[in-house]
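Human: Here is a favour to ask of a fellow structure person. Comparing notes only helps if you start from a blank page. Give me a protein, with the fold worked out from its sequence. Please set it down just below, with no commentary around it:

Assistant:
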Amino acid sequence: MDDQVDDYLHQLSEAVNSVLEDRMVGLYLCGSAVVDDYDNDVSDLDVFCIVKRPLKASDKDALAQALAYHALPSPGAGLEFYVVLEEEAAHPHSLLSYEFALLTGRNFEDKVAEEGMDEGLLMDFAMILQSGKTLAGRPKDKVFGSVPRPWLQEAMKGSLRRHEKQIFHPFYDPYGHEAVMNACRTWCFKETGILTSKTRGMKWALQQLPDSNLIRHALSVRRGQEHGLLKHEDIRALIHFVISKTPVKVPSAI
């Protein structure tokens, strides 16, 4: 990361604190920014806010206005911001819920969800515990409970199935490379027990499959070196291959 990102995160922390005050437990950074894979051209910033009690509608409106790109321009592709109750973070379960979610950035309209469930939050929580950064409030290991292996594996499997349905989605995966990146990262986790970045996951997968044009193509798209569509059937085959793999070194919990 750079000074621009640090300055933005400081402003974000102040903006959130001005809305939530003593209701906020802490703010935590995860995603590419904490695993040395942040690219200002393609990466967004993933921030989690943990709160003591449910938010009022006025709180959600205030957060949406304060953090929207037009009010607080984010570096990189944008901001993915979640608000989660303290109880959910402290005692993870198989289908976590969030109070509020905001996706905002320079090249798309804001997407706001006021409440919902997302098993993918388990992967985010595990990433925060392993590599995340506390931006404000209580230390991460005092806020987030460990994530049991079976739930994390199911969450990763569910994520791959969603990616399979979103191949070539104009917003989520226009070239098909996002599905490949997540498949490689999941495969790496199954074999090593480490939650790594998308880029490192692909590099690791290329060591296992050095002749894979699919993974090499996805890595080039990630780096901005190519913009052609990947082959749909090859993507699906990789996803099914990874789902079928039996975990080797995954710890009992993260």
